[in-house]
Amino acid sequence: MEKSINAVSRRTMMRGAALGLLATPALVGKGLAQGAVNWRVQSHWPKASSSFTASLGVMAADLERRTEGAFKMTLLGDGEFAKGPDIYNIVRRGVVPMGTISPSYIQDHAQAASFMYGIPGTLRESWEMQHVIKNLGVEALVNEDLMGQGTMILAEKVLPTELALTRDIKSAADFRGLKIRSSGTMLDYLALAGAAPQFVPGGELYQALSSGVVDGAHWGAAVGAKSMSLWEVCKFHVKPPIAQTTDAYVVNLDALNGLADDMRQTFLDTVESRFFRRSVEYVHAEAIALTRGRQEDALQVITLPEDVLELLSAASVKVMETEAAKGERAAKAADIYRGLMADMGYI
C-alpha cells in the first residue's frame, strides 16, 4: 500500500496543467463495493468566507458527484476542531483526515513552504504562480518534506494578496508602525518595510479591525475582504497585489492510503482539476468584488506612495534570500522563482 501512495503522489505532483483537460470518470468497481466514505474536513476558512463554499464546498460537491455519492465530506468551519496553524497538526495526527490551510502555517515543517505560500514582491500574475506551483515543481518540493511526516499538500487555488486598511497611506511615515494582520513570509516582509504586522485567526479578524487592535489586514484580496465584511471597517484597498499566493488542502496519508485505488485517484484528480478552474474563476471574482466594493461600501482603491514601494522592494529581496537559505529544497524553489522572473524580465 505504501508503494501505491508514493506512486500516485509523485504522479499527481508531476502532471500539472494537463490534468485540468482530462475528464474524471464516474467511480466504479472497488470504490463503490467498499462502501461510502465520509471525511471530516477542518477548514481554516470561517463559514462566512467565500472560499468555504465556493472553494471547499464546490470541490466536495464535485467529488461526491464524480463518485456517484460514495465519497462525502463533512465540512467544518474555522475553529470547530482547530484553527489556523493547529489544523496541520490535527491532520498529521489523524484527528481529521483532511484540512484546508495556508502554506504559511507549515513553514516549520517544509523548507519550500514559503515559496508555495508566495514570496511577496516577486510574481505578478495568477498564471505565473499556477505554473510555478504545479508545472515547475514547488508543490512537489514541499511534499518531499511533508510525505515523511505522513501528510501531503495539494494547492487549492492561486489568489492575490492585497491590503485593506482603515486609513490612507500618504508616505513612509504613515506606513511605519501600521498594525497589519498578516501571516507567514508576509509578516517578515511587512516588518522589514517598517510596519508592525501580527497574526490574527480568521474568525477573530473582524473584531480585531473594528476594535482597533489592528489597522488593516490581508485576507486574500478583494473577494476575501468583501466576504469577511472587512470593508465595513477598512475603506482603503491597496493595489497592486503584494503577492500571488495559494490556499491548500492538507491530507493525512494513512487516510488517503486507506481508500480504494479508484476512489483515491478520483479524489486526487478532482482536487487537481479544480485548482486550475478555481484559480481562473478567482481572477474574475476579484474584479466583480472590487467593483461592488466601490459601489456598495464606498471603497477607495489606493496605490502606496513611492517611498513605501521602495521599502517593500528592498524587503522582498531580503525575504527571498532568507527563505532560500533554509535548505536544499528551499534553494531549488528560489531558483524556480528567479528563473521565471528572469524569463518575464522582472529581474
UniProtKB/TrEMBL annotation:
It comes from the Bacteria. One of its GO terms (biological process) is transmembrane transport. One of its GO terms (cellular component) is periplasmic space. It is found in: Periplasm. Pfam families: DctP (PF03480). The keyword Electron transport does not apply. InterPro entries: DctP_fam, TRAP_DctP_sf. Keywords: Periplasm, Signal. The keyword Signal applies. This is TRAP-type mannitol/chloroaromatic compound transport system, substrate-binding protein. It comes from Gemmobacter megaterium.
